[in-house]
């Protein structure tokens, strides 16, 4: 997983092994691409060892909704190779590069052996960037605007790729659902969750856990003082067919775990989280929270920065 060290400029990045978090963060390394003194970096999405980052100008918080990325870059942290994406046509530039209402998903298209970047806006408008052709195109969406007219209030989880589909967890108010993008038909579909409007639900995090199915961790507050919460694991079999698994637990938290960033569901069943410079391993059976690594509070970690090291090159189509 990639983390950005933002204590001073120029920016540097570190990585941490999500299955061996006690090894800690690696020493900071400079980014191979240029980041200006008045710019900052966001990690957006990743696949097959490629990480998509956005470069934007530092702007006041109250005008962030009008900010745009200066550049979008595909980068392999293992090899330091990178490619700056070409800009779309002027009429669609704001849709693709606006920093607000950002839904990005990176995937590999097997039928044409191409890496593609999905961008969905609140309208919703759908755009796809092709690494092979280094170009953007617009895709028609049949989702009604009334379904997403509060899109600006949405919180999106990182994308998960499974069986030529991208899945995103969407959250607005107390409503939770999953957005599915079929990479073959290039269509969107909204999938309901069984806990969509439970006001005690404090957070959800999802991952591919086992058996080739999407799984959701659901945290529901039982008592506010002292804080106790119930964790449930749900499995989705087909679109919207949910099964609650038996290994739900109760956790007594000394600090509200729902405020942690959920980074990774480990192979041993523990949950890796991050908060205020600390990486924790949460044992879902014993309820123990173990501090794995500590760094500065200015270290920025995004779940979208999780990747598997590969030698995939973002410039592989340059000479073809």
From TrEMBL:
Residues 69-211 form the F-box associated beta-propeller type domain. Pfam families: FBA_1. InterPro entries: F-box-assoc_dom_typ1, F-box-assoc_interact_dom, SCF_F-box_component. This is F-box associated beta-propeller type 1 domain-containing protein. It comes from Lactuca virosa.
């Amino acid at each position: 997983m990639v983390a950005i060290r933002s204590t001073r400029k120029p920016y540097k990045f570190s990585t941490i092994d999500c299955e061996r978090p006690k090894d800690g963060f690696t020493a900071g390394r400079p980014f191979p691409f240029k980041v200006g003194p008045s710019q900052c970096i966001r990690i957006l999405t990743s696949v097959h060892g490629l990480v998509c980052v956005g470069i934007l100008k530092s702007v006041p918080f109250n005008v962030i909704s009008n900010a745009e990325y200066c550049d979008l870059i595909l980068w392999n942290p293992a090899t330091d190779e990178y490619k700056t994406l070409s800009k779309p046509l002027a009429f669609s530039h704001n849709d693709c590069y606006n920093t607000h209402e950002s839904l990005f998903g990176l995937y590999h298209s097997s039928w044409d052996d191409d890496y593609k970047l999905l961008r969905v806006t609140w309208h919703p408008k759908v755009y796809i960037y092709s690494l092979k052709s280094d170009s953007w195109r617009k895709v028609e969406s049949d989702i009604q605007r009334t379904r997403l007219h509060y899109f600006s209030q949405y919180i999106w989880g990182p994308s998960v790729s499974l069986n030529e589909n991208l899945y995103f967890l969407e959250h607005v108010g107390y409503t939770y659902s999953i957005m599915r993008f079929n990479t073959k038909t290039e269509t969107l579909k909204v999938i309901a969750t069984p806990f969509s409007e439970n006001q005690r639900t404090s957070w959800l995090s999802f991952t591919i856990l086992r058996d080739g199915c999407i799984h959701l961790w659901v945290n529901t507050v039982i008592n506010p003082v002292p804080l106790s919460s119930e964790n449930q694991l749900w499995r989705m079999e087909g679109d919207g067919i949910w099964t609650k698994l038996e290994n739900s637990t109760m956790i007594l938290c000394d600090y509200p775990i729902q405020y942690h960033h959920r980074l990774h569901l480990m192979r041993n069943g523990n949950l890796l989280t991050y908060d205020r410079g600390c990486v924790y391993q949460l044992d879902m059976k014993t309820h123990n929270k173990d501090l794995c690594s500590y760094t500065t509070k200015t270290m920025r970690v995004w779940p979208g920065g999780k990747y598997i090291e590969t030698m995939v090159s973002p410039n592989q189509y340059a000479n073809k």
